[in-house]
Specification:
Alpha/beta knot; alpha/beta; seven-stranded parallel beta sheet; globular
Length: 273
């Protein structure tokens, strides 16, 4: 076994969180853990599982078949906690939605995720998958930066969770392997996006934690001045999430908006004294 290669792949894949929403079957969790370990990946995050302790159930451990350590390290958390340090939050869904993040082609997504992981050593990425019954809810999907679909049979496009996870993990490992074999001293090619509907991956934006902070500030201000009524909160929140996630905001953009919101809050307090 090439220990340098194994370390290279593990170091990069360990900065990816695998976020599973609404998981209901422990067997699917176990099979997914096995699929990830085979590819040197881990970091499973469970959001709103059907019950606590799925990773400890016997069927999950049996289906993991030697990947018990991946199960033991997985955590139950919130979507916000699971993705807060991620610059890309990529959702996988076969359904077209009325409001959704920018859609990106699978191979392009893989190339650019690997480019980010290699070029920015403190970067993190989240891969988001829905539950077995209904997949990702619209309210969860809209929190992601990108939507990616598999090139499956359009008549029957539903993949088992572990199969979907395996496809993504294998593609990431293969791309990392090609980078390792090329020349570790050579920077990966800057990848160009030919489809204008795809968000520019070449300039990773701010983390999800900062995007959530901006959204919170916007909503608080909107409520304070009566711009948004409480009964319209859900729809507006979804639209703001989509706008912020698809805008690819830079650190300077973030600081400008943060200062702008702070100045408005200060001005409101002065006026209402």
């Amino acid at each position: 076994m090439n220990t340098d290669l194994n370390k290279f792949i593990s170091d990069h894949l360990n900065r990816i969180n695998w976020v599973f929403f609404d998981l209901s079957h422990p067997g699917n969790l176990g099979a997914s853990a096995r699929a990830l370990k085979v590819m040197n990946a881990c970091n499973v995050k469970l959001v709103n599982p059907v019950r606590a302790g799925l990773a400890k159930e016997n069927i999950a451990i049996r289906r993991a078949a030697g990947a018990k350590d991946v199960l033991e390290s997985c955590s139950e958390t919130t979507f916000e906690q699971a993705t807060k340090k991620s610059k890309y939050v990529i959702a996988f869904s076969s359904r077209k939605r009325e409001i959704q993040p920018p859609e990106v082609e699978f191979n392009l997504m893989i190339e650019n995720v690997v480019e980010l992981l290699i070029s920015c050593q403190d970067s993190r990425v989240s891969m988001v998958f829905g539950g077995e019954r209904v997949g990702l809810r619209n309210s969860d999907l809209i929190k992601c930066t990108h939507l990616c679909k598999f090139a499956t049979n359009p008549v029957y496009s539903s993949l088992n969770l572990s199969h979907a996870v395996q496809l993504v993990a294998h593609a990431l490992r293969s791309k990392l392997l090609s980078q390792f074999n090329t020349n570790s001293d050579v920077e990966p090619d800057i990848l160009k996006i030919s489809n204008p509907n795809n968000l520019n991956f070449n300039k990773p934006g701010i983390t999800q934690q900062k995007i959530l902070g901006l959204k919170k500030s916007f909503l608080e201000l909107s409520f304070d001045i009566g711009l948004i009524k409480f009964d319209k909160k859900g729809k507006i929140e979804d639209k703001i999430s989509r706008i912020l996630n698809s805008s690819n905001l830079s650190e300077n953009d973030f600081k400008l908006l943060q200062s702008f919101f702070a100045l408005i809050k200060k001005r409101i307090k002065e006026i209402t004294k």
